[in-house]
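Record Protein-export membrane protein SecG, 77 aa.
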Amino acid sequence: MVTALKVLHLIIAITLTATVLLQSAKESGVQGVVAGGAESLFGKNRARTLDAMFARITTISAIAFIVTSVLLTILMR
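=>
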């Protein structure tokens, strides 16, 4: 049980890190480097849909990370 929770915690941590890094900043940041020419593919709606999706995934990942952290702390005692 603890091992499965540790693996889940690691996956959530990686997901949280990736979504935070992929969110667009005011200066375009990492997403500008990674996305590159994708702007022409998605057009004007790209910013709204991807940013909203990344924000939602980040929120869910952060909550799951906190929950798994607390559960691991309780179970490791």
